[in-house]
Amino acid sequence: MTPWRVAFRRRYFTSARQLQKSLDGFLRFYNEERPHQGYRTQGRTPAEVFWGPVGSAKEV
Questions:
Q1: For residues 32 and 47, what is the distance between their CA atoms, to the nearest angstrom?
Q2: Which burial class, exposed, middle or buried, applies to 22 when counting CB atoms under 10 A from its CB (0-12, 13-18, 19+)?
Q3: Taking the alpha carbons of 41, 47, 49, 53 in that order, is the dihedral positive or negative?
Q4: Cα 52 to Cα 54: distance, rounded to the nearest angstrom
Q5: Residues whose CB falls within 8 Å of the CB of residue 54, separated by 6 or more in sequence, listed in order
Q6: What angle do CA 17, 18, 22 make, to 5 degrees?
Q7: Which pLDDT belongs to residue 60?
Q8: pTM (2 decimals)?
Q9: Torsion sign (Cα): 11, 14, 17, 19
Q10: What are the tens digits of pLDDT across the range 2-43?
Q11: Is the dihedral of CA 38, 39, 45, 49 positive or negative?
């Protein structure tokens, strides 16, 4: 079962804005908060793998 199907079962979206806000929240959780157990991530979040450890990202 894909994650978006669960979201549609829990909430009824009446506008594209509501749907986008929900999807943005899910992506933030998935990429920045939830640790992953894959070979390359080794317990880090995808954001940590891509950007490096939290706090070391340089502002442009």
A1: 5
A2: middle
A3: negative
A4: 7
A5: 48
A6: 115
A7: 41
A8: 0.59
A9: positive
A10: 555 565 667 787 888 988 998 899 888 888 888 878 787 788
A11: negative
CA distance 25 to 17: 12
Q: Is the pLDDT of residue 58 over 80?
A: no
Q: What is the C-alpha separation between 30 and 24, in angstroms, rounded?
A: 10
Angle at 25 between CA 6 and CA 51, to 5 degrees: 120
Predicted confidence at residue 21, as pLDDT, reads 92
Domain ranges of the chain: 1-30
